Amino acid sequence: MKLGIFGGSFDPVHNGHLELARIAKEQFGLSKVFFVPTCVSPLKPNGAVASNEARLTMLQLAIEAFADFGICTYDMDRGGRSYTIELMRHLKQEYPEAELFFIIGGDSLSTLHRWFCCHELVKEISFIIFSRAGETLLFNEAFSSEEKEKLQRFVVSNFNMPVSSTELRQALAQGIMPQGDFIPQSVAEYAIANKIYKN
């Protein structure tokens, strides 16, 4: 069994996230993709705008039509700073027979060497890297040639998120339904009705 792990603030979750998860699942034969909303990212200490409860509800609304998508609330449940290595150790205990694939954007490679226990992560799991059009994947010299080779094994090139979470928050804060197919309607309606991004 191959499990995809997709972490992020999902503030709010939008169709770009869903499309990324769909491509990862289909291209690499994943059995399921778990969305993992972060609590507090060590590299983004300011955290999310919406509450944990609101972000979780929006995720649940977004994926309810996708049988092969799920949500792992490990980071939210434990609270505090979210370290990927702790999540991975938990999932390995939960799914001992599974091969784990952690999904990241190409821009995350520039800070991957700063992740807690980064070498153990690269050794124990696989990374699916989504690279933007024209983006060159940069591997820090902290990684060995063998580690760099493994990191380049599963790459999706020329993927661009079609929408900005910041722009979506601005529209939703004004009670405006975003134009275009950028966010699930149920998510937008929930955010507006509950004034999730209203100042």
Describe the structure.
- With 199 residues, this protein is of the alpha/beta class.
- It has one domain: 3-Layer(aba) Sandwich (Rossmann fold).
- Helices cover 39% and strands 16% of the residues.
- It has nine helices and six strands; from the N terminus they run βαβαβααβααβαβαα.
- The protein has helices at 15-28, 52-63, 74-78, 84-94, 109-112, 118-124, 145-151, 165-173, 185-193; strands at residues 2-8, 32-37, 69-71, 99-105, 126-130, 154-156.
- A six-stranded parallel β-sheet has the order 3-2-1-4-5-6, sandwiched between helices.
- Strand 1 (2-8), helix 1 and strand 2 form a beta-alpha-beta unit.
- Helix 2 (52-63) runs antiparallel to helix 9 (185-193).
- The longest helix is centred in the first third of the chain and has 14 residues, at 15-28.
Q: Identify the CATH homologous superfamily.
A: HUPs
Helix content: 25-40%
Largest sheet, if any? 6 strands, parallel
Radius of gyration: 17 Å
Q: Which descriptor suits the 3D outline?
A: globular
In spatial order, strands of the major sheet run 3-2-1-4-5-6
How far apart, in Å, are the first and last alpha carbons?
44 Å
Order of helices and strands: EHEHEHHEHHEHEHH
**Portion in strands:** 15-25%
Structural class designation: alpha/beta
Q: How many DSSP E strands? A: 6
- Give unreliable regions as ranges: none
The whole-number mean of residue pLDDT values reads 91
User: How would you describe the oligomerization state of the chains in this entry?
Assistant: single chain
CATH architecture: 3-Layer(aba) Sandwich
